[in-house]
Specification:
mainly alpha, about 50% helix, flat
């Protein structure tokens, strides 16, 4: 369970309970996952934990149990179902190497923290303006480099969907065209077009899929949509049908 209570208890056991708000705010809540894959220097820097004693304790407690085993990718706890990110080998080493090849290794912690780790997928479907804004990359040179390196190779080939940490929606995102234009038009029809960047950034782009399986409370929380009216409108528009096709 990647819940905030679990991470607080885990940190309390190390005498580091005061760090719980940081772990929760930065979405490092899945204790079992952290134990399995460990916390590296980039993780601790991203968490802004600089005290040597705290870093040593955390790295000791979150060390991977089996060095030879294939490590699962970091999956932010905000993921509704943190399984799909394991598809496609979206590991932190891969994205760091890829960025190093462009001279942009300093961006690796951002890509890891925001769960943009599947290099093959990024190469296949590209990084658009919304992606780069979500990653908070504003330098024109960096943006140009990333878009050039992550451009889809063949426009005519059906692009694979972005697979974020959520397993329920991305599994479904493979069905139909999970395109950003479609979700923007769909939201515009509800008067909620301002939410389009959030849906795109968090990879909720397959309108047909959302209509078919609905959006539950976890989905809306993951999308950080807290306005009661917006939540009501969205849940009404994507209510799953009563009977199976």
């Amino acid at each position: 369970g990647a819940d905030r209570c679990g991470v607080r208890e885990w940190l309390r056991g190390m005498g580091l309970e005061e760090l719980a708000p940081v772990f929760v705010a930065k979405d490092y809540r899945d204790v079992e996952l952290m134990k399995r894959i460990g916390l590296d220097e980039d993780d601790l820097n991203f968490l802004e934990i600089h005290d040597p004693h705290q870093r040593e304790l955390l790295q000791a407690k979150a060390a991977p149990a089996v060095v030879g085993a294939a490590a699962a990718p970091v999956v932010p706890a905000s993921a509704v179902v943190p399984v799909a990110a394991a598809v496609g080998g979206a590991d932190r080493c891969g994205v760091r190497e890829w960025l190093r090849g462009m001279g942009l290794e300093e961006l690796a912690p951002v890509f890891v923290a925001k769960d943009y780790r599947d290099v093959e997928l990024m190469k296949r479907i590209g990084l658009d303006e919304d992606d780069l804004n979500f990653l908070e990359i504003h330098d024109p040179h960096q943006r140009e480099l990333l878009q050039a390196q992550a451009a889809p190779a063949v426009v005519g080939v059906a692009a694979a969907p972005v697979v974020p940490a959520s397993a329920v929606v991305p599994a479904a995102a493979a069905v139909g065209g999970a395109d950003r234009c479609g979700v923007r038009e769909w939201l515009r029809g509800m008067g909620l077009e301002e939410l389009a960047p959030v849906f795109v950034a968090k990879d909720y782009r397959d309108v047909e899929l959302m209509k078919r399986i609905g959006l539950d409370e976890d989905d809306l929380n993951f999308l950080e949509i807290h306005d009661p009216h917006q939540r009501e409108v969205l849940q009404a528009k994507v209510a799953a049908p009563q009977s199976l096709l």
